[in-house]
Amino acid sequence: MCVFCKIVNNEIPAYKLYEDEDFLAFFDISQATLGHTLVIPKKHFSDLLEADSETNSKILPVVKTVTNILKSKLNLEDFNVISNFGKRAGQTVFHYHIHIIPRYDHDDFEINFRPNPLTKAEFEDMMNKIKN
Predict the structure, then answer these.
(1) Residues 36, 95, 97, 99: which is the catalytic one?
(2) Dist CA 18 CA 112 (whole Å)
């Protein structure tokens, strides 16, 4: 059983911010920034792609609710909302989860989107692979 399933089953403790019948939100033990929270479905799925449509349709409203709680109670304005799918993308717990990462003026958390310009031919090749 995965660590998040153990949290859902109250087998290990967590700092829970929100809970309903289908979802749970709790502080990430690693705290990228103060208030870093995870939202998970209680039912085990490895990621968004494995989750059923009902779970996927319900999770974003929960993320919004939890983000608004953090915004109000911690007096914040800015957040990153991230979900990693797979090892190469940085997923370390293979239970579907969405990170809500509060942002502060002087935090040291970084997400860097480095430019990777493609030629017209490379864009067209990628589009052809997707369309065919």
Answers:
(1) 97
(2) 30
